[in-house]
């Protein structure tokens, strides 16, 4: 089976044909004549065809050489077109950024990031999807997002990660709830037994709470499950039950007295906020730009 010729060697053959000699082609390329001669000879051996007739007057194409140069011209034109097309794809990729963000991060961090990113890279087109942490990891892992931001205490080994902040979960109840006026901190057992208002399975908030309880051999007893921080806050204010959410999500309600924070010192409800991207993929430049913005604003 004939081996595939090197495209650069085919290009060199065409240059020798245009210059009329190996020496002139070598001078145009800034190479030595023996080096060019060796490359042409290697191409002839590879193809099994004599391409040049060499004489003291110069080098001219053999009939077979003229056919090969014609074919090579078409092949090189196609290769150039391929390179231009790939460059266009790369430019389009580099001009866009797909971001998947978990809900708490989307509500309390991402808006400032996107505003700052727009100042740094005004031509970058950013699309952001908001979902829970498990779905964020899925989208990044499956190539549906270039970078993700999640709130889970664990991160898959298939993903690269960078922690950019810490976040605390808070147990909160309305002012009239029995837990609101406790003199003693709440025991973790009582929290586990209560019908809590919690995020849906797959949420980083839910996973953090379940892990914290599991470390004390306790199991979560969900009341209402909702995929919305705002809906959970409203349900808690209405008296539907205690809620466990990020301190950022509850800050306004706690400050206004609509909800009261309930200390549960037995539980470690601190969690990392983490950026993730695929280990086996080339990240577009927008990922680096966004990470730099996140590092400044965290």
UniProtKB/TrEMBL annotation:
Keywords (A to Z) from UniProt: DNA-binding, Transcription, Transcription regulation
Domain HTH lysR-type: 5-62
Listed GO MF terms: DNA-binding transcription factor activity; transcription cis-regulatory region binding
InterPro entries hit by this protein: LysR_HTH_N, LysR_subst-bd, WH-like_DNA-bd_sf, WH_DNA-bd_sf
Family according to the record: Belongs to the LysR transcriptional regulatory family.
The name this protein goes by in its record: LysR family transcriptional regulator
Annotated organism of origin: Nocardioides donggukensis
């Amino acid at each position: 089976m004939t081996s595939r010729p090197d495209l650069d060697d085919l290009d060199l053959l065409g240059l020798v044909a245009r210059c009329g000699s190996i020496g002139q082609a070598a001078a145009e390329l800034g190479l030595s004549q023996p080096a060019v001669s060796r490359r042409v000879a290697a191409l002839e051996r590879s193809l099994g065809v004599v391409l040049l007739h060499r004489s003291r007057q110069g080098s001219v194409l053999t009939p077979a050489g003229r056919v090969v140069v014609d074919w090579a011209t078409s092949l090189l034109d196609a290769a150039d077109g391929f390179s231009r097309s790939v460059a266009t794809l790369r430019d389009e990729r580099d001009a866009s950024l797909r971001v998947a963000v978990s809900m708490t991060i989307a509500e309390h961090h991402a808006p400032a990031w996107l505003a700052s990113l727009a100042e740094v890279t005004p031509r970058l087109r950013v699309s952001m999807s908001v979902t829970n942490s498990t779905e964020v990891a899925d989208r990044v892992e499956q190539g549906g997002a270039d970078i993700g931001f999640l709130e889970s205490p664990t991160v898959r080994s298939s993903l690269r990660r960078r922690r950019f902040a810490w976040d605390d979960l808070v147990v909160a109840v309305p002012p009239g709830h029995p837990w609101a006026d406790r003199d003693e901190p709440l025991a973790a057992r009582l929290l586990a037994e209560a019908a809590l208002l919690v995020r849906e399975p797959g949420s980083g908030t839910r996973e953090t709470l379940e892990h914290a309880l599991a470390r004390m051999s306790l199991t979560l007893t969900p009341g209402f499950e909702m995929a919305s921080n705002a809906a959970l806050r409203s349900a808690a204010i209405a008296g539907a039950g205690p809620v466990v959410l990020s301190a950022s999500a509850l800050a306004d309600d706690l400050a206004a007295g609509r909800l009261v924070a309930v200390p549960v010192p037995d539980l470690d409800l601190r969690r990392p906020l983490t950026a993730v991207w695929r280990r086996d993929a080339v990240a577009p430049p927008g990922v680096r730009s966004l990470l730099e913005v996140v590092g400044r604003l965290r």
